[in-house]
Each structure stands twice: as C-alpha cells, then as structure tokens.
Specification:
single chain, 2 domains, alpha+beta, Trna Endonuclease, Chain: A, domain 1, elongated, 4-stranded mixed β-sheet, 6-stranded mixed β-sheet, GMP Synthetase, Chain A, domain 3
C-alpha cells in the first residue's frame, strides 16, 4: 500500500473492520489495567516509542509470533484475545495504534486516523458506542448524589461514556427526570462541566419511560420513594 493512497487505505480498512482482530492482554496474576471488555478489566500491551505510547493489534497468530520472536518476554506475560475491531477502536479512541508491528507490511494509525476512517467507512452514518466510565475524582460522586436529592423530579442517574465517531469519547451523566427546567437551574444553567482532572462531563436528560443510551449501565442514583 502506497503512503498517502487514501482510497487504498480506506478499502483496506473496510475489509479490516468486517472481521476480528487480536490483541495481547496481560495474563492473570499480573497487574491489571484500564481497558474494559464486558465485565473484565484488561491490561492491553502497549509499546513506548519516540512518537508516544502505541497499542499493537494483529490480524493472525502468525503476526503475533513475529512480535513474540522480537520480544520473548511478552509471550510469558500476555495472552491472546480476539475482539471486534470496532470495540477495540472505540475503547482506544485517541490512541496511537499499530497493526502487525513486526511485519514488513504493518500499518501505523496515528491518533485520530482510525476515527476518520471509521466515519468514512460508514458512509457518514453515525456509529454510537457506550460503556462504563472511569471513576470520578474522589468525593465527586457523593457531592453529585447530594445535589440530585435537592432537584425535584429526578428519578435516577446513570454515569458512563458515549462515543460518536470521529470522537473523542464524552463522559456523561444521564438523568431520568420529569422537569428539565429544574435540572437546568440546579446545574447553574450549563450542562457541561469541567472536572478537576481536566475531563469534561456533560449532563443529559431523558423523561421517565423513554429509552436512553446508558440504559444498560446500572444507575448510581435512584431516588428513594417516600411515603
């Protein structure tokens, strides 16, 4: 594939996302990291390079064997996991990726490139991914729960992330509430807030009984029914 050949790259990428890819995750007993797949937290192999941290992924066991040959210790510490390409790309949005790193025809995807390729491959159809978000800063959740107790009409609240290609992932609080005006006033007229660690958190509102994007994530807040 020639560098800069966008049409060829997009055609290759469309084939890639139709199948499965392989990643290397740390074996049980080793330190466990940040990447979550269903109910399992996974520490995915990451290489440090001059361009920054890079996550490798592979198209076959043969390509993995080439990486094992170059780095024998990896085989002892990591196991192979098959994943859907879209799931991998959603969870690593904004990261630098490399496909088949020890193969002469491997491909590096700088940050942001995968998001743009996904958007192009989907022919402008928005693909939505959701998931459980990392913990809020210490004490933030308890403060939020106390605030929700003071807002009339809030039934429940869910915390998670939503990803609309080309990204990045957005942290959100999904409130199930009857009175949008009361919620808006309680949050000072703005539904976007910056956390102490620099992350942005958006507050979204849905009326009771309507489906919403975080319905599959258990609520962290449910208003007590008082007699």
């Amino acid at each position: 594939m020639r560098a800069g050949d966008d049409a060829a790259l997009l055609a290759f990428f469309k084939l890639l996302i139709r199948g499965k890819v392989l990643i290397l995750v740390r074996r049980p007993g080793w330190w466990r990291g940040w990447w979550r797949a269903r109910d399992e937290v996974l520490d995915v192999l990451m290489f440090g390079t001059e361009e920054g941290d890079t996550i490798p992924f592979f198209t076959s066991e043969e390509r993995i064997a080439e990486t094992y040959a170059e780095n024998p210790g990896i085989a002892r510490r990591y196991r192979v996991l098959e994943v859907e390409p879209r799931a991998l790309f959603a969870m690593t949005s904004g990261q630098r990726l490399v496909l088949n790193p020890n193969w002469p025809y491997g491909k590096v995807f700088p940050p942001g490139v995968v998001d743009r390729l996904l958007e192009a491959a989907d022919d402008s159809v928005t693909v939505i991914h959701t998931g459980e978000a990392p913990p809020l800063p210490p004490g933030a959740m308890s403060v939020l729960v106390k605030r929700l107790d003071t807002i009339p009409g809030v039934h429940a609240a869910h915390y998670g992330w939503v990803y609309f290609p080309p990204g990045p992932r957005q942290l959100i609080i999904m409130l199930v509430a009857e009175d949008v005006a009361s919620v808006d006033a309680a949050f000072g007229g703005t539904l976007t807030h910056r956390l102490p660690d620099g992350r942005e958190l958006e507050v979204w509102i849905k009326p009771p009984g309507e489906e919403h994007l975080l319905a599959g994530i258990p609520p962290f807040y449910v208003r007590e029914q008082r007699a």
